[in-house]
Design goal:
With 373 residues, this protein is of the alpha+beta class. It has helices at 16-20, 22-34, 53-69, 85-92, 103-122, 132-144, 152-161, 175-185, 214-230, 275-278, 290-298, 301-306, 317-333, 365-370; strands at residues 41-44, 73-77, 98-101, 149-150, 169-172, 189-194, 207-211, 239-244, 250-259, 263-270, 281-285, 338-348, 353-355, 359-362. Helix 11 (290-298) crosses helix 13.
Length: 373
């Protein structure tokens, strides 16, 4: 195999022979794929940005060898640059080859893959620990869903079924009912739009905070109703949600999504209006058990604050753990039917933690059209 210019001390370097004779290059790859002592084959090579008969043919040959070899074969693009549309379509036609961009990121990802494979041998796969009643609630919510997302009330009812702490609240159809609900909950309260047609309530003035009297609740009900009537598209107003206003020492974000490659994933971190500024989030695969939920929390600055930071009291971590476990079970149970779940903010203080806003986006045709896909 070794030709002129080869480094004899490095049998993995085919040297000049691979340059002058492409068959030597392909044979070298085949030998490594076939070698039982080689676990992963890494090829430092750029995918063509435009049609290239020889390189495409060689890629398809390697793809076939990888399919028979039963081991990871990875092409690494040395330069982390965007693929062309041709490159993307070519990549999709090579199901047995993994393509990564950027040597540093690729090697880090491969190392993580190896570590994960070792862990899988030591730790059994986690399965959802949800109750049968929760799974029944999920099926009912999905069956009754209309449009691209569940409204806030339906979202919270489903979260509550999965054991996720929710603020005290009820939906009102008129101002008198809103006042009655507020008195039962206790002031202060929050008033919010309930409409499957309005996903971002704050953007149109659909959330009013710090309501401390019956008169303020009545006025907020009227103001929100009037704003909705002025909106284009005539969104359907299902009512006004009157909810407990929880004192928060920290605002968290707890979320989940269905990743195209990784499957169900959960997210935890600093939430509220600081979510974009802080960029303090951590991700993990779903479902999680309590130990994994605590480990996920510990990976964030929010987790440090929860433990008690610079003399401040510790916050109610148990509620955040419960929310993460419940949310991870929900996204896992849903399979491919839920695209994302967003709880922001999840308010926490030393005594409690509750979800005060929630949005569940479905993975259906309506959601795909709304996303422009």
């Amino acid at each position: 195999m070794l030709g002129p210019g080869s480094i004899v001390g490095n049998p993995l370097d085919a040297g000049f022979a691979a340059v002058v004779d492409p068959s030597v290059y392909m044979q070298s790859i085949k030998i490594m794929i076939d070698d039982p002592d080689t676990d992963i084959v890494i090829i430092d090579s750029e995918l063509p940005k435009a049609p290239h008969e020889l390189r495409e043919r060689n890629l398809r040959i390697v793809n076939e060898m990888a399919g028979r070899g039963g081991k990871p074969v990875i092409y690494i693009s040395a330069m982390s640059i965007g693929f062309t549309e041709f490159t993307k379509s070519l990549r999709q036609s090579l199901p047995h080859l993994t393509v990564m961009q950027g040597m540093d990121r690729a090697v880090t990802a491969i190392k993580s893959l190896i570590d994960y494979a070792k862990l899988r041998k030591e730790v059994p796969d986690l399965v959802s620990t949800s109750k049968a009643s929760a799974r029944i609630a999920l099926e009912k919510a999905l069956k009754n869903a209309k449009g691209a997302a569940l409204d806030e009330v339906a979202s919270k009812n489903l979260l509550r079924a999965y054991g996720i702490p929710i603020s005290k609240e009820a939906i009102a159809q008129n101002a008198a009912e809103a006042v009655r609900i507020a008195k039962n909950i206790g002031f202060p309260v929050v008033a919010k739009i309930v409409s499957a047609d309005i996903l971002h309530k704050s953007d149109i003035g659909g959330v009013v905070l710090n309501l401390n009297s019956a008169a303020e609740v009545k006025k907020a009900f009227g103001d929100i109703t009037a704003r909705v009537k002025k909106l284009k598209g005539k969104p359907v107003l299902e009512g006004i949600l009157i909810a407990q206003q929880v004192r928060a020492d920290l605002e968290l974000v707890v979320g989940a999504s269905l990743d195209a490659e990784m499957g169900p994933v959960v997210l935890f971190g600093t939430g509220g209006i600081e979510i974009e500024l802080m960029k303090d989030v951590a991700l993990a695969g779903a479902p999680l058990d309590e130990a994994e939920a605590k480990a996920l929390i510990a990976r964030t600055k929010a987790g440090v604050k929860i433990k008690g930071y610079r003399g401040k009291p510790a916050l109610h971590e148990a509620s955040a753990v419960k929310a993460l476990v419940g949310l991870s079970n929900l996204i896992a149970d849903a399979g491919s039917r839920i695209a994302s779940i967003d709880i922001n903010p999840f308010l926490i203080n030393p005594k409690t933690g509750v979800a005060v806003d929630a949005l569940i986006v479905l993975n259906n045709e309506a959601a795909r059209q709304a996303a422009g896909r």
